[in-house]
Every structure is written in structure tokens, then in C-alpha cells.
Amino acid sequence: MTSSAAISNRNIFFISDAHAGSLDHEAEVRKHENLIGFFNYLATISPPPLLYIVGDLFDYWFEYRQAVPMMYQTILGHLALLVERGVEIRYVTGNHDYWMGKFFPQYLGIPVFHGEHTLRAGSKKIQIFHGDGILNDDIGYRILKRILRNKFIIAIYRWIHPDLGIPLARVASVASRKHNKRGPEQAMNEDEQYLAYALEQFDDGFDYVILAHTHRPKAISRGQHLYVNLGDWIENFTFAIFDGLELKLHKWNKDLTQIPFQLIEETEVTKDKEIPETL
From the DSSP assignment, how many helices (H) and strands (E) are in the chain? Predict the structure, then answer.
């Protein structure tokens, strides 16, 4: 599914892959501390910016009609406060939150987009896409995605009580990431396929392509075009900013109170790091 939108002249922030609500308590504490600090920073910007969440903010999201997972309440509350303070938020779903329905638009005022999303910002045409299903060997996943997004399957799962359905899905998410952990050669091959995808989008008229999903931050230019992979908020705490003129990748640094983010180079976020879990 393809969607599109245009914006006025203001800063645009892009984040992805926090996977909040995972079973790793230590990682959750660090993740929440950084995310809340980042959200608080956005609330200080004037004029209020636009924030794109490019999938998998949550490790699992399923909309029961009368229940929201308790572990997400803090993040949801801060998102609501950002909207109240004039920060526009748009959500492009990933593979862990594609079951999003009416909750975000109806209760938080945050529109939700599925699949590839086109943004026109000034003179730039930007494609924003979580990126799941791009890889050549993702045939099985693409079939599974069609099954899991079937309305009948969703209706059946909704009959499972949240006290069972939510823990079951969280365990499944952890198992999926461990099963799909990448080695260096496989990660390099995947990165090449993601770049090839971005190059195809450049040929179709996009100036920038913003992807996620791999948890590996990238910023690769080809002439006036730029491909950015947003990385994650588990290990790298990376995000991108478009200031109306150019798109840059940054790293959140909670210790720098006057400059809460710092520009990073691609080599700094990939050098000597363990290949992260994805999916």
C-alpha cells in the first residue's frame, strides 16, 4: 500500500525500531530513559517539528477493543503530550506493529500509514518505508504477512484474552529475532539489497529513501540522492533529521544537555559492533 503527504517548512525527525516492551529488562530501562529524553527534547523545539515513527516502536502491538498493554502506557502518554504541544506525529507501520487500527488516529491524533509512504517536503520527494519484505529470500515472510494481516485471522486472535494473547506475542517476537540474527556476511548481503532497493527508488524520482528494519544505521549518498537506514533505539539510538535543505543521520546522546544529539558517521555506528537482531 502506498500513501503520500506534504508538509510545511519545519524540521522533520525520523526514528524506528525501539521495540519497546521486550523481555530484556535492562535494555528496557535504557531504552525508555533515552526515548523519554528524546520526546522531551522534541517538545522544546519551536516551531513544533514533525515526527515520523518508521515502524516497530513497540515489540508487539495488537489492538484489542478494550485493552492496551500496560508496558506501553508511559510511551503512549508522552506521545499524547507531544501532540498536545503541537508536535505532529505520523506512524508508518513495521512488521511488529502492522496490526495497528483505530487507536492511534482516534485517541492520540496520530495518523497511521501501512507500506510505502511518500512525503513531499519542500523540493524533496522522500520515500519512507519500514523495509520488511525487501530481501530476495523474504518470500516466506511475504506469504506469512498476507496470512497474519487477514481480517479473519485478526478476528480470531482478538478472541484470545489479553492476559494470554499479549505474553504469547511477546515471546514470539523474541523467538523471531533470535532465529533471524544475522552474521556479518549475511548482514552485508542484506545491506547491499537495501541499497539496491533505494537506487531503484531514485530512478523512480525519489530524492531520499528512508528505511529501517535492519537495526543497522546507514547513510549512503549517490549524487544528490541519499539512502538512510534509521538503525534502532536498542543499541545505536540513531535518528534522522530533515531541516528543509538536507537529510542527516544523528545519534542521541542524553549526556549532552545543550546539544542532545550529535552527528555520526556511518563507520562510527557499524565499526566493531555485534550484528544486531532484526525482524
Answer: 8, 13
- What length does the chain have? 279
What is the C-alpha to C-alpha distance for residues 209 and 221, in angstroms, rounded to an integer? 10
Neighbours of 15 (CB within 10 A): 25
The answer to whether the CB of 212 falls within 8 A of the CB of 53 is no
Distance CA(160)–CA(3), nearest Å, equals 32
**Does residue 277 sit within a domain?**
no
The model's pTM is 0.83
Over residues 31-72, the pLDDT tens digits come to 899 999 999 999 999 999 999 999 999 987 767 666 676 668
Q: What is the CATH number of the domain that holds 91?
A: 3.60.21.10
The upper half-sphere exposure of residue 174, i.e. CA atoms within 13 Å in the direction of its Cβ, equals: 11
Residue with cell 529501517: 212
Rounded to whole angstroms, the Cα distance separating 234 from 174 reads 14
